[in-house]
UniProtKB/TrEMBL annotation:
Chain ranges of the NADP-dependent oxidoreductase domain: 15-258
Protein name stated in the entry: Aldo/keto reductase
UniProt record similarity statement: Belongs to the aldo/keto reductase family.
Record GO terms (molecular function): oxidoreductase activity, acting on the CH-OH group of donors, NAD or NADP as acceptor
Domain of life (superkingdom): Bacteria
Site (Lowers pKa of active site Tyr): K74
Pfam families linked to this entry: Aldo_ket_red (PF00248)
SUPFAM superfamilies: NAD(P)-linked oxidoreductase
Keywords: NADP, Oxidoreductase
Active-site residues annotated for this sequence: Y49
Binding site for substrate: H107
Keyword Isomerase annotated: no
Length: 283
């Protein structure tokens, strides 16, 4: 598995296995175990996904040493602020049943994220987190965090897929030394991604699936890719993207699929912010 080097020198596998919306407990344990067996060494969960326990169980049952697996989890909005973040972090550690987290992210750019960041800086300095970062931060929010704090986020995890390529934010992240990590790289199949003729045509040239073309396109853009699947054949397939290279012509064809619009929702929409801020989980 290829890795990237984060701004603090930490190595992070460029392909990660996402567990969002794997709600059934057995399915969550099994999928993570299969992902680890297939070769994933990077798992992306969140307190809000309600499956940190299952991720921890799968890691234990895999028999793979903890230090060989890169584990990301995230702080939900109900727990922002200095004190709450410290408590929420301890609970995530307990649920995952690990001694440290490789990457801890602020899940959404709302509420007292500065208080959270102070707490995360301290946890990082204590060695309880190997790298700290954010998710769904736009340029202005990212700069606000950078300007008023000591540690620059290692990661900004954002939506990036063929239809919402987010190159402006990716370039901004890069300019600040922040690695871009793509969530929903397949747009969860929206906009008929898996039936897209242009992507299928490109895939046929390299004998690769649409999912592999997309993952490879992100790898070549120097973006970390998170993909979710509960099917072994797809999990295996999604890892198999390091034996081909898309030509610049094919990269250009994919870039032309950009609509410039989120396939999910706009993180700057006031109604959405209001709604998300009220979403709580029994975690
Ligand atoms: N930070 C955030 O706010 C945020 C938001 C969303 C997601 N994420 C993270 O990013 C990860 C990935 O995003 P996502 O789960 O939303 O969506 P995604 O990975 O873009 O898409 C997952 C969907 O694609 C299907 N799929 C996967 N591989 C396939 C293949 N090779 N061929 C055909 N279909 C395939 C899956 O179905 P099957 O499972 O049936 O195979 C599933 O329906 C999440 O799991 C989570 O860790 C973070």
């Amino acid at each position: 598995m290829e890795s990237v080097v984060l701004n603090n020198g930490i190595l992070m596998p460029q392909l990660g296995f996402g567990v969002y919306q794997i709600e059934d407990a057995n399915e969550a344990v099994n999928s993570v175990k299969v992902a680890l067996e297939c070769g994933y060494r990077h798992i992306d969960t969140a307190a809000a996904y309600m499956n940190e326990r299952q991720v921890g169980q799968a890691i234990k049952e895999s028999g793979i040493p903890r230090e060989e697996i890169f584990v990301t989890t995230k702080l939900w909005v109900q727990d922002v602020g200095y004190e709450n973040t410290k408590k929420a972090f301890e609970k995530s550690l307990q649920r995952l049943d690990v001694e440290y987290i490789d990457l801890y992210l602020i899940h959404q750019p709302y509420g007292d994220v500065h208080g959270s960041w102070k707490a995360m800086e301290e946890l990082y300095k204590e060695g309880k987190i190997k790298a700290i970062g954010v998710s769904n931060f736009s340029e202005d929010r990212l700069m606000d965090l950078i300007a008023f704090n000591e540690i620059i986020p290692a990661i900004n995890q954002i939506e990036v897929n063929a239809f919402y390529q987010h190159d402006d934010l990716h370039q901004f992240n890069k300019s600040q030394g922040v690695y871009t990590e793509a969530w929903a790289p397949f747009a969860e199949g929206r906009n008929n991604l898996f039936q897209n003729e242009i992507l299928a045509e490109i895939g046929a040239k390299y004998n690769k699936s649409i999912a592999q073309v997309i993952s490879r396109w992100l790898v070549q853009r120097e973006i970390i890719v998170l993909a979710k699947s509960v099917k072994e054949e797809r999990i295996r397939q999604n890892l198999d993207v390091f034996d081909f290279e898309l030509s610049s012509e094919d990269m250009k064809k994919i870039s032309e699929l950009n609509t410039g619009e989120s396939q999910f929702f706009d993180h700057k929409d006031p109604e959405r912010i209001k709604n998300i801020s009220n979403v709580t989980f029994d975690i």
